TrEMBL record:
One matching Pfam family: GFO_IDH_MocA
GO MF annotations in UniProt: nucleotide binding; oxidoreductase activity
Organism: Tolumonas auensis (strain DSM 9187 / NBRC 110442 / TA 4)
Residues of the Gfo/Idh/MocA-like oxidoreductase N-terminal domain: 2-104
Signal peptide feature range: none
Domain of life: Bacteria
Protein name: Oxidoreductase domain protein
């Protein structure tokens, strides 16, 4: 298959992932003509430009651009196989436009279910070790150097662990939410009659922090990890009834890039017919309809928090080091 990529930053991760999946990456697009020419040359990509016409010979296109641009690109590329960065960017204002998309060959990249730690959780739950779901609590800490509204922070960063929860347990029903100062948000949902607490807050150190607690009728699991600029992504050993099992996932193994590459590989295998729909879903692939259903479960958050201050805010005090 011939592939193209939109975006010169995280898009380079998709270039690598698509090549590892067996694709020939032949085109790259971005709005900055000089920059896309430079990056395309560095990556050995023969075609580049600032218009979507550069993808005319591509079978697959990866969208690695800011969330607000996703809808327009998905609308324009419905004749291609598409892999779009998370999240979709679903809001009450654009919901109908997303629902009108031809979803047959569009997929959203949610790498969290492709982490080794996530697979470990999935295997334990499928084996019966966990029992019936009783309660879920997630703490997501954010300290990143760009402004977003509190709801946007929630949708951009809580969606990481939320995609894993959806993959493991299915869709959820929104119950309510409250907001404190800035991006301090507490949302509660219900899944399989169990309560799900999602807590977003500014984190004191630069990066991202995730703490996921799953309580079942037979066992309890805790998974912690995150991202720091100085050591990238890592996951600590899975705690089973407060005892560490395994070695976790170390930052030196580039675990987030590896998980992203696994998404690309699953997509290409599915499109080639090497795995069926059920196998793709079990791996953690999110076709557009699955991603829509997941993000729709969080759509009431916009209304629930409308009474609070939604001015863009920094989530923490982080400043990127450029030298």
């Amino acid at each position: 298959m011939k592939a193209g990529v939109i975006g010169t930053n995280w898009g380079r991760v998709h270039v690598q992932g698509l090549r590892k999946a067996g694709c020939e990456v032949i085109a790259m697009m971005a709005h900055d003509a000089d920059l896309v020419a430079k990056i395309a040359a560095e990556e050995g990509i023969p075609q580049h430009g600032t218009e979507l016409s550069v993808f005319r010979d591509c079978d697959v296109v990866a969208i690695a651009t800011p969330t607000a641009s996703h809808l327009n690109y998905l609308q324009a590329l419905q004749d291609k196989i598409v892999l779009c960065e998370k999240p979709l960017g679903l809001t009450p204002d654009n919901q109908q436009q997303f629902l009108a998309l031809d979803a047959r060959r569009s997929y959203i990249s949610f790498p969290f279910p492709f982490l080794d730690s996530a697979k470990q959780l999935q295997q334990l739950i499928n084996s019966g070790d966990f029992g019936e779901l009783m309660r879920i609590t997630v703490v997501a800490g954010v300290n990143l150097p760009y402004p977003k509204t509190p709801v946007e922070w929630f949708m951009e960063d809580m969606i990481h662990p939320f995609s894993l929860l959806t993959h493991l347990f299915g869709n959820m029903e929104f119950l309510g939410a409250r907001q404190g100062t800035g991006c301090n948000i507490s949302a509660q949902l219900q899944c399989q009659h169990a309560l799900v607490d999602l807590l977003l807050c500014p984190w004191p150190q630069p990066g991202l922090h995730f703490d996921i607690t799953l309580i079942g009728s037979k066992n309890a699991y805790q998974l912690r990890g995150g991202f720091r600029p100085d050591r990238q992504w890592w996951m600590e050993p899975l705690m089973i009834d407060d005892i560490a099992h395994g070695n976790g996932e170390e930052a030196k193994d580039a675990i987030w890039i590896r998980a992203n590459h696994r998404v690309s590989n699953a997509l290409i295998k599915h499109q080639k017919g090497e795995i069926n729909d059920q196998q793709a879903m079990e791996l953690g692939l999110f076709p557009l309809q699955r991603a829509l259903a997941m993000e729709q479960s969080l759509l009431p958050l916009w209304h629930a928090l409308a009474q609070y201050d939604q001015r863009p805010t920094l989530a923490g005090n982080m400043v990127w080091q450029t030298t």
